[in-house]
Design goal:
The protein has 668 residues and is mostly helical. 57% of the residues lie in helices and 6% in strands. It has 23 helices and 10 strands. It has a 6-stranded mixed sheet. Strand 5, helix 22 and strand 6 form a beta-alpha-beta unit. The termini are far apart.
Length: 668
Amino acid sequence: MPAIPSRPRSTLLSILLIWLAFYASFTLFTPALLDDADSVHVEVAREMLLRHDYITLYANGIRYLEKAPLLYWSMAASMKLAMLFGATQPRTLAAAARLPLALSVLALALILEALARRLFASTRVGLYATLILLSSFGIFLFTRITIPDVMVCLWLTAALYCFWRTEELGGTNQHHAHPPHLRLFCGGFAASCALNVLTKGLIGVVFPVVIVAIYLLLTRGLRRSLHRLRELHPLATLEAFLLIAAPWHILAGLANPTQGHPAAFHFINGHWQVPLPTDGNVRGWYWFYFMNEHVLRYLNLRVPHDYDTAPLWLFWGLCFLWMMPWSAFIFKATAWALPVREPKWRSQLRRHDLPLKRRGALLLALWAVFVLLFFSLSTRQEYYVLPALPAVAILIAGWLARTVFLVAQPKGAPLPDIHTLLASDQNDERAKLRIITVLLALGTIFATASFFLLSHAGTPAPNADLSTLLTQNPSDYALSMGHFLDLTGPSIALFRLPLTIAALSLLLGPFFALILRKRARMHAANLALAAGAFGFLIAVHLGLRTFSPVLSSAQLAEAIAPQVHPQDLVAIHGEYESGSTLGFYLKRDDIHILEGRSSNLWYGSFFPDAPPIFETPQSIAQRWSGPQRIFLWQSLTESPNSLPTLPGPVYILVKSGGKEIVSNQPNR
């Protein structure tokens, strides 16, 4: 096995500076939390601190049983630490809640760099892998929302890093020379799987275990695989996994038992009929979490069916979108990792004697393909591809650096002649030039179209409300980024700066990369591509800030906050998720819901201890003429978007982003 180089200080410094600039500075504070999952998850963490209950999750005072707890524990701890330093304002606490995901990105980048460097015995591959990951559009975008998927990437990468370290230690009898190391990495694998289970559920252990099992079978065959598993301390590894993962699952089940007499399952017309709960008659946490949220969700039978699934072509296509521009290299990198046309490689695979470096590339390919295939057969959201991205990043980095580290020169030595460089691997170098040329062509088309649109978009009116310039596509809103399909030509004027930066980034990055690569400055060419990708991330953040008033009700909550008193009633017309930022920014866990008993609050609302927060048009009408002040949020664009018949006057307090808050009393 070749010597593994240590991480250069320059690489560590680069990772830290890029992480600080893009993940741990201004992006923590802006934009405000978004409605739906973003603010719901942070509110769950806030209520965890209010209740001092770290076993059962609650949202708006109702049991929230569908998620694993680690993300919420980390956000609660971060907000608690901020409070100890006197930071109690919602915007500061929102930044604190985003910090754990930012730290997860940093940990992921460091582990990814270490794994890439070890797999290819190259510091250059480690650097490229982290640059690709940190500049990934998908990783950046889905850490602007407090969802746990980047943590899934972290623990999966950590688990496979630990497994690879056991591979480096070798097979039979090798572990006798290094017993502490082998046991340590087996324990690290178990801990990573357990933490992943506490982050996202059973896929946290299914992904790494199945990937490792397939890898062992392909590289060793059945008999040698079983022998290798016996060498990896299976009982101790299982004990470590259960020690970390089991306690919360046991306690959550005990704290949330079955209530009343829920209906039994029935097999009707060849299909199982999933019974719905009724008030006081609801199955406990074990059924809801494991059966409903894992098995039935995977089979697209989960209740309630309040989500959509991305089409298969879109799901696979997003893997390319989330890694722009690096995804242009994915086919060549995969062909390099799995050279099925090479007789020697096929022969080694059949004989189970692939060299270690080839086995590492195989592990990466299995990792990416298994994740994508797993979700291809189930319900799919846009961000479900994220756990495959670290493997893809290393594959692309390995292929990009292939020529570079073969011809690396001592510091100060002259660059080799271009003909000498191309002679080392002409096919690869020509392929890279062709790919960058295609990227330049696409960037030119995007820039031309962008500047054409901007030149015809006109100047937006002062204080223009973006929501008035959008179309409405409510059928797409179950997808996390569905609202961006509402953009129209007139709305483009409000995105002048981010669109300009995006156009220049996608144009100039490939332009300079092509020039530098033709001059045999391969490393500088790859860095130019990375610079363009990071410029695009700045545009993404600015665009999200511009769009955020449509996606968030935080500005409405802050507008009415001085008027709201503890005895007042705050209500949302529609689903809780539609205006869920109200709870966090108003520090309320008792938001009433009018015509919206569904989605995240639906199942928990059937437990006997659920607060009576669900209103009907009749009940809200009775309250409207009473002495209690009512603040009622409603969307002006999504159904239900018209108020029920109310006695007495209706005062519009604030209107923004296609939403408004009305009251039965004027501002005092």
